[in-house]
Structures are given as C-alpha cells and as structure tokens.
Amino acid sequence: MKYTTQMEQAKLGRVTLAMKSVLENERISSKDLLDKMSEGKIVIPYNKLRDHKRAHGVGQGLRTKINANLGVSKTHYKIDEEWKKVEMAEEYQVASIMDLSCYGNTSDFRRKLVKSSSAIIGTVPVYDLGNDQSRDFKKMTKDDFFKIVICHAQDGVDFMTIHAGLTLKTIEAFENNPRCLSIVSRGGALLYSWMKANGAENPFYEDFPRLLDIARDYDFTLSLGDACRPGCLEDATDAAQIQELLVLGDLTQQAWEANVQVMIEGPGHMPMDQIAPNVLLAKKLCHQAPLYVLGPLVTDIAPGYDHITSAIGGAIAAQAGADFLCFVTPAEHLRLPDLSDFKEGIMASLIAAHAADISKGIPGVLDQDKHLSRERAVLNWEGMFRYSLDPVKPRLYREGSEAKIEKTCTMCGPLCSIKNMTESIFQNH
C-alpha cells in the first residue's frame, strides 16, 4: 500500500504504529485520538524515513510537551558539548529536541541525532541557507529554499519551522507600526532581508503547495513559524504579529486539505495579562491547531533568569491551551547555553508544563504529586527523591545539609511539623 500521512490515516480510521505508541503513553482513547488528528487538533511529528524509538503526540487533551534547543554556532563550535545536551534531554525524557545548528557540517550532526534520539526532532531549514558561506543569502534562488527543506526531510527530521506567514502584506504591517526590537526571529530576519533585496514575495508563501507536496511525501509536520513574534513586552500583540497569525490560519487550512500536519508557533515576550487572550486568539484564528510557544517571557529585566520568566509565561500559556513549550535557559539573550544552563531550562519548562497539566485536569498527571506527598508525610527522603522531576538536586541538598536529626531537615530540626504531628497522632492512638 502506498504510504499516506499520519493525518490521512487518521481520517481513514486507521491506527498506525505511531498512534499506538502515543496511546500507550497518554490517557486518551483511540477514537478520540483519531478524531482529533483528523481535525488537526493533535499532531504526531513522525518523518516516514525515521526509525522511531517512540512517538509523541502534541495537542488537545494530551500532556503538554516541552522542546529543548541545541546546536553549534560559528562562535561556539563544540560538537561534543552539544552531544552531552542530547544525552541529558534523553535522561529527562524531553519530548522534543530542535537542532538549531547554523555552522559547519550540520547534516552529519542532524543525521546522528535523528538516528540515536527517541525524541521528536525539529529544525529550521533556512538556517542552513544562512550557513552557506560560499554564497550571499540575499542571492539565494527560490529553488534553494525548497531544496534545503528536502535535505532536512531526507535526513529524517520530524517537524520544521517554516516562516511562511511573513508575507509582503505582513511586512507592510510591520513597517507601518515601528517596533522597539524590530524582527527578533533569526529565520524571520533572514527571510525579510531576502524579500527586501529581491523585491519578491516569500517563496514559502508564494509556492505553499510545493512545500505541502514535500511535507506530504516525507510526512513531516509543518511548524508554521512566527517571524513577527514580539522580542520585548513593548512589541507584544501588535499589528505585524496579528497579521502574520491571520496568514497562518489560512495556510493551516490549506495544509489540512493536503493531509499535512500543522503546528502554530506563538509569541516570545508578553505581559502576563496578554498571554491567555493571545493563546485563545491563536487557537481561534488557526482553527484549534496545536500551539507551540517560546516562553512567553513575562518581563524583560531578568537576563540570567529568563528560564524563570519563561516558566511563568509557559505555565499561563499552557493552562490557557498552548500544547507545546519551547524551553528557555538562563543564558537566553547572553550566550549559547552550556550544559548547566541546558538543565536549568529543561527543569523550568518541565515544571511549567506539569503545573499547567494539573490545572487542566489531564488524566494521571497528579499521580506523581500524590506519591511524593505520601512519602513526605512519613519523611521518607528516598521516596521523595524517587518521585521528584529531578532526583539528583534534592538529594544533593539533603546530603549537604548536615542534618542532626535523621528524619528532619536543617530548617526545622526537632520543630518539624510533620515529625511532631506524626508522633502526636501515634501517641494518641
């Protein structure tokens, strides 16, 4: 039988191996999964060329997933360091990894990542065009844009960020409404420079059917990028951001007609009170397609702590209906993150996703909290560590505390409420 996409299989009522993998790890019925995939409300990024170890679903009714970014740059070309990040992402069962490498032989690293990781793998193909040192990016041809997409698809990438919503009309809205920080999306800035230099429409928008043909052939998911995402609070929810979102809504419907899965990428920096309305607006305009947000970062004044500002925003966004959180590390805006930064970003995003899923009532999510609380009720430290998102850090704190009383910590010691209440209840019985 000729290969068809995951979305088309869902419309035909067929449960694929990828869907079975999702059903094993989520509390959702096969009918619900098929219905929501058919409607575009759930995606399973799953390149047909890839030998997957596990599939992950993203969307309505599923656990909020997180993505970790990694990759080398010209100023920090350390492949071994990036590979340690891959291993850490696997250790903490991160659902998705985006390889944002923009220097050197990116294809070799990408293929190794695709082959060895159990995570969803995403990329931004236009970065590779910018990486081509032998040619001026502004002189790239329209064919070049599609050739690099095919290259990433052939390498087995599961989803690709494509900034197809940055149209000439979107640029007009951007230029008529000046920003504090202009366009902060790397891919968006590259496309803007190409469009202005060539006086031409965005190739990905102008020939969107060609992009859909490639996506359908390899069954990778389109992550329709937000080139005009706000890079500071002052630029949030402006005309360019909304105009781009309108375009993405139209492109989403075109993709679904071609049985291509779609995610929508959401804002970066945004005041807390604007997050939920933005999520609802994106969901409405893009017909309930899964929403993938970067943060959002809720303040601009915390360099070095942006994993915290983004975790706050991510929790609010996910509670409001966002399905996929891109992590932010303490190194955001400052440098390429090291391994310690990478872990901090993972943990902050995992906490945000978990907290949101509790509030949304995702089945089974609260179980781990209940287990840890029961261990805490009997002051069983090893039990508490076992159910922690990160068992390593709390154990190090405990072992380094020099507690004089085995059962308590050094904050309360013999005044520990749990210890004294347990003893009182025991004595009264």
- Estimate what percentage of residues fall within beta strands: 5-15%
Secondary-structure element string: HHHEEEHEHEHHEHHHHEHEHEHEHHHHH
User: CATH superfamily assignment of the largest domain?
Assistant: Radical SAM ThiC family, central domain
Q: And the CATH topology of the largest domain? A: TIM Barrel
Number of helices: 19
Strand order of the largest sheet: 3-4-5-6-7-8-9-10
Major beta-sheet overview: 8 strands, parallel, barrel
Summing up helix and strand content along with how strands pair, one would put the structural category as alpha/beta
Please give the CATH class of the largest domain: Alpha Beta
Name of the CATH architecture of the largest domain: Alpha-Beta Barrel
Count of beta strands: 10
Please state the average pLDDT score. 94
Helix content: 40-55%
Our count of domains comes out at 2
Rg, rounded, reads 23 Å
**N-end to C-end Cα span:** 70 Å
Shape: globular
Give start-end ranges of low-pLDDT stretches. none
